[in-house]
Amino acid sequence: MIIIKIAIVSGKSEGPTELNAFDNALIDAGIGDVNLIKVSSMLDGNAETVSLPDFKPGSMVNCVLSSVTSSKKGESITACVGIAIGEKLGCIVEKHSINENPEEVKKEAIFMAGYMMEVRGVAIKDLIIEEISHEVENIGSVVSSVIYVD
Asked: Which fold has domain 5-148?
């Protein structure tokens, strides 16, 4: 049986430009030295959460990524991923927001993940929510991601 391994990471940072702020947030999350390939949101039911491995720099890495960057001082930015795992399959959702209560962002991620599983007729056996927020000082960025390890 093949087990899909995933790592869940988040990071936040500031930078002199929006690109640099985003890059610094990726570095903070531990995924700044790889090429991220965004994929859609499905998992096998045998998914297992593991620690982020040391990827070779420049590796091509599949992920579901939530991110937001802002250059408006004082804005609250939030990135969130939600993972629902059932017996047959799992779903990943992403949500990002500006100036929204982080608890509301998490609630929406929980709703979206639950709905995706419900329409597929799969009961949730494990639910994981990862959220990160940051108050922008100059140019800020947040990222939250599910990294496909295997």
From this structure: Pyruvoyl-Dependent Histidine Decarboxylase; Chain B (3.50.20)
